Amino acid sequence: MSSVILRNLTKRYGTQTALDDVTLEIEHGQLVCLLGPSGCGKTTALRLVAGFMSPTAGEISLGDRVVSSPSRTLSPEQRNVSMVFQGYALWPHMTVAQNVAYGLEVRRVDRATIAKKVAAILQTTHLDGVADRYPAELSGGQQQRVSLARALIVEPETLLLDEPLSNLDTGLREEMRFEMRRLHDAYRYTSIYVTHDQGEAMTTADRIAVMNAGRIEQFGSPEEVYEEPRSEFVARFLGGSNILRGKAIDATHLEFAGAPIECHGVPLAAGRDAAVSIRQHHIALSNGVSRPASPNAVQATVVRNVFLGSTRDYVVEAKGGSQLRIIAAPEQSFAPGTSVWVTLPREHCRALVS
Fold first, then answer.
1. Which tens digits make up the pLDDT trace of 126-157?
2. With 193 labelled, which of 45, 93, 274, 316 sits at a CA distance of 20 to 30 A?
3. Which residues of the chain have pLDDT under 50?
4. At what angle do helices 111-124 and 96-106 cross, to 10 degrees?
5. Alpha-carbon dihedral angle through residues 250, 256, 259, 264, given to the nearest 10 degrees
6. Domain 2-227 top-level CATH class
């Protein structure tokens, strides 16, 4: 059963199109990340689902109700959604328990029920030890948990999260990624999570919608969008990828650096310009004396070798001037200027939509 459906959703501001004919279905209980750079339309999509604005075209359904269309838009309070903002938006004069209870009090829930629900959710979010503190007395991670607890306690049909970890420092942000996933698994609310951070998306999401220029370029599980990117944008944005460019020899071979490179993915059109992606860590380096057994191998010269402790970061230049970035084992060291063989495993060479 789909819990959230966007149908041909478009939002324009004058001549500028922020969201361009987006269609997306989110199943009940899923956590879906809208992932993309600034200005790609992800926050616009979230604000449309929340009811803060009306679409120019298309519609939004929550459950079996159409809540947004160009002719009629239900207000946020009529949608049973909760939103977690990047700025926390906590009441500074209220304690943690009072902040969390606020939504239930507005709904006129009886005091006994409020006390029981607040105690339960503070325990789940590991805040029971700070219930009587004020927001200014909390760490950033604790404030974010309070914001989440306040959103979850009203039992929304849909939970919306707008860059919820962007204000935290790096170490705390990494810790909170797993906390967000733990809380989702505990409550299983249908959730839409906006972020520009691929690590957050990979850690928290059931499915990822990679967005670019107001459109969804690819929608799938974290493994699918990472291992099987369909476009150059997805390949580059989600993890480090090299893009091999050349003429297609046939449906499965690209001429690159003077060699036929076998690939999989979308069929190539013989004689046409084509592109293939391969992740930096999937490429193998070997000395330039003897050719590797793999047919997907080209000769290159080392341009850069940087030791990073657990890995080495290489840049090599192949025939024709094409440069490839390669992540290799730390013990594998080739000095700049060295001739090497570069092996591009067929199973990791992904043909891209042109």
1. 898 999 999 999 988 889 889 989 988 988 98
2. 93
3. none
4. 130
5. -50
6. alpha beta
